[in-house]
Write a structure and sequence with these properties.
367 residues; alpha/beta; 7-stranded parallel β-sheet; 4-stranded antiparallel β-sheet; 13 strands; 22% strand; binds 2-succinylbenzoate; binds magnesium ion
């Protein structure tokens, strides 16, 4: 496929409630949106999941835009299939979120051209997926219970609590006491150290599905040592940045469940490779989230519909994040979201609304 231009915009969207994690508090999302326009005038859309600051991963919005303009777009030379993107961009180290966004925009255009849905292309076998919700660190336990009650009433099928030192045992105990049966898991975003094994093992009494990324992203050995001390399964998020890193972590028994986030691993094609590996090794996977808009959410739902995604993901309804999404909203029905079945990612942004929230706009045009 040949491209005539890439349109970039950075939009600003307030979150419906602040989202506090061990790496900071998000009150709004600043999102880089990519539109690739092909020579036959098909638009492909994608969202770059990087956050404003390099707190969750080394990537950040302004850096991704720079990387794309300075190195990635020139390397593609206005011509590529989606399948060639990763190989062409391999010489540039890191930048998975930027690379994933370009690949996804190109894939959306390519699939629109061939009239196929992303779900079909990736190998989905479900038409709807079970939804979980990720709950931030609260100001107090009563406030946490209120927030979780709200989500449970809405029908979420799994609750994930963000934890950090001094916000772990007590809040998890209270939530577990109140909802003895609900599928429950925790996410530490690297907030603990190798010495915290005993502390984390205290969470074993709450029958958690998993503990997500307790230690530093580079500490694979530490996670494998921790896995011998705690009974709750360890699930890696930040540490898994490619198929290779997934293979290594599984081999080292550092992880027994994997959170697949397409942006973190360089795209949907790499995500499917990780899924296939995990399926063959009987490692359950689930689809993580980056507080995406409808553009990113649509594509995540297609991925979450693959057979190895046996745990509910952080694929929540649009209303969990935004008062008004940039696509038609994803609405939860009995704890499920429908997998888009239109061509490409299956959704289009509302251009007038997009314009109204755009902070920055620029294009790279073929000469
Ligand atoms: O660690 O999974 C994470 C959001 C932003 C960055 C990292 C994470 C998260 C979440 C929320 O937990 C996932 C979502 O609802 O999109
Ligand atoms: Mg996480």
């Amino acid at each position: 496929m040949k491209f005539s231009k890439f349109n970039f915009r950075i939009i600003g969207l307030p979150l419906v409630r602040p989202f506090r994690t061990s790496f900071g508090t998000q009150t709004h999302r600043e999102v880089l949106i990519i539109e690739v326009v092909t020579q036959e005038n098909i638009s492909g859309w994608a969202e770059c999941v990087a956050m404003s600051e390099p707190l969750y991963s080394p990537e950040y919005v302004a850096g991704c835009l720079d990387l794309m303009k300075r190195f990635l777009i020139p390397a593609l030379n206005f011509e590529s299939s989606a399948e060639q993107v990763a190989t062409k961009l391999k010489p540039f180290l890191g930048g998975q979120m930027a690379k994933a966004a370009l690949e996804t925009a190109i894939l959306d255009a390519q699939l629109k051209k061939s009239k196929m849905s992303l779900a079909k292309y990736l190998g989905a076998n479900k038409t709807k997926v079970e939804c979980g919700v990720s709950v931030g660190i609260a100001d107090s336990i009563p406030k946490l219970i209120d927030e979780v009650s709200d989500y449970v009433e809405q029908g979420y099928r799994r609750i994930k609590l963000k934890i950090e030192p001094n916000w772990d045992y007590e809040p998890v105990k209270e939530v577990r006491n109140r909802w003895p049966e609900i599928p429950l898991q925790v996410d530490a975003n690297q907030a603990y150290s190798r010495n915290d094994g005993k502390l984390l093992a205290r969470l074993d009494e709450f029958n958690l599905l998993l503990i997500e990324q307790p230690l530093d992203e580079h500490d694979i050995l530490g996670h494998s040592q921790l896995a011998k001390i705690v009974k709750t399964p360890i699930c890696l998020d930040e540490s898994i940045i490619s198929l290779q890193s997934a293979q290594d972590a599984i081999e080292m028994q550092a992880t027994s469940v994997i959170n697949i986030k397409p942006g973190r691993v360089g795209g949907y094609i790499e995500s499917v490779k990780i899924h296939d590996l995990c399926l063959s090794k009987k490692i359950p996977v689930w689809c993580g989230g980056m507080l995406e808009t409808g553009i990113g959410r649509a594509a995540n739902l297609a991925l979450a519909a693959l057979p190895g995604f046996t745990l509910p993901g952080d694929t929540s309804a649009s209303s969990r994040y935004f008062k008004k999404d940039i696509t038609s909203p994803f609405v939860m029905n009995d704890g499920y979201l429908d997998v888009p079945n239109g061509v490409g990612i299956g959704v289009e942004p509302d251009l007038d609304y997009l314009d109204s929230i755009t902070i920055h706009k620029e294009s790279v045009v073929r000469k």
